[in-house]
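call fold(seq) -> tokens
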Amino acid sequence: MIQTALTPFKNKLDKPLTKKQITVLQINLGKRCNLACTHCHVEAGPKRTEELSPETCNQLIDLIRRFPQIKTVDLTGGAPEMLYGFKPLAEAARTAGKQVIVRSNLTIYFEKGFEDIPEYCAQNQIRIVASLPCYQSANVDKMRGNGVFDNSIKALQKLNQLGYGKNPDLILDLVYNPQVPSTDNFSLTPEQNKLQRDYKTYLDEHFDICFNHLYTITNLPVGRTKFHLEHKKLHKPYLHFLEDNFNPTTVEHLMCRDELSIDYLGNVYDCDFNQMENLPAKTSTGEIITVAKLLESGSLDLIQEVQTAAYCYGCTAGCGSSCGGSLI
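ret:
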């Protein structure tokens, strides 16, 4: 069967994908992590050494303090809790009245030197967005490593004891990722509200765990997911599947439109996926943007048009996908 060429994503849109006012800073603190998950688009792991420098950390603190339009500072990695800058950035953002999100793998709480993280997050009212790609152990351990599910459950129970999922100031959200496909029998992520009910029922009945929201996130063909798909000769078929399920009503709500994604070197991107694919954000004149450039210009809103690529179909397929779950 001859497959038609993939439509360039920008050609699928009625008009250029433009930025709105920036309200979210998502900061990737580096690639070091205590896990090496099979679906990780960051390709993080215990052997990675890249992380934020003190100089870039100070620039980011300056950025957080100078721009009231920033409502949310979203800290990710790697395992952000184990990387330089986590606490200074969290405290600077909370002092400035911003919401702080940490994207946690939960198992970091059991690593030496990081046992205090749950209490620290509670004391600073940090919103925890925790990866739990399934509510059953076999699927989680297959994707993330043996014993990860059990430690994740223990971590969630600890967070509940501190008030997470119960106290309105201590928000605990979970993230569902489907398994990376190994055949061409592709499927979209399940409907978010229904899956959230299933998660809540199962975790409550079996482990007495409660949480606030479940986010369903599509696996984009980036990083280890891309390598897996290429190895199985499924990369192009998967992209075609995503294009076939393109939903134009998701475009208005794409996360890349009101956020800046910043890497550990201080480079600026439209989203975390562009960051991993080294597709930098640019001004209308084609100048690459950095944190230093933002500070120098006195503006966060230097980008007119979002840089797009074929994997953008992953965020616009079906109900859409973002760091905050489905888009519609």
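The beta strands are 24-28, 72-76, 99-104, 127-131, 172-176, 213-216, 259-262, 268-269.
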